[in-house]
Amino acid sequence: xxxxxxxxxxxxxxxxxxxxxxxxxxxxxxxxxxxxxxxxxxxxxxxxxxxxxxxxxxxxxxxxxxxxxxxxxxxxxxxxxxxxxxxxxxxxxxxxxxxxxxxxxxxxxxxxxxxxxxxxxxxxxxxxxxxxxxxxxxxxxxxxxxxxxxxxxxxxxxxxxxxxxxxxxxxxxxxxxxxxxxxxxxxxxxxxxxxx
Length: 196
Hints:
Blueprint: H1 15-39, H2 45-52, H3 56-62, H4 66-91, H5 94-117, H6 121-148, H7 158-164, H8 177-190
Helix pairs in contact: 1-2, 1-4, 1-5, 4-5, 4-6, 5-6, 5-8, 6-7
């Protein structure tokens, strides 16, 4: 008796679900690491994995070293900061968009301290060089919109503005760093306005 060939059963490919889980794990690890590093540059990978609800193996699959994780957090944050300039301009008046973007820059400046502590000097220098132009371009986009609306001085250049707000990366703020940074930021931005 010959056996009739059976039709092949459709196989359910588990890969898309696995990829989605892996992306969710990666995003969760990045979010937890960002907050943890903002609190302290000494946070351990084990504590990040635990707080993210993943095993150490999962964390190391995505980020084989501490530096790889810190670099990913840094790059992710800078990417979000740069991208937010266009988003803010599409939702806000130009001056409001400029102010909100610099508020985000100030928040990034606070997080950057924890990240910088976890990187060596050469890596910090490379990252600064890597992200300098995208950040300057984002500032230029915001300034251009403000110029078009007649809100900022015409002699203001984006690299000068970035240098002007470099105080955001200082570490010796005293007892109320957020309030002091915001006050200094408002003074700096006020100097950009027309008629000043």
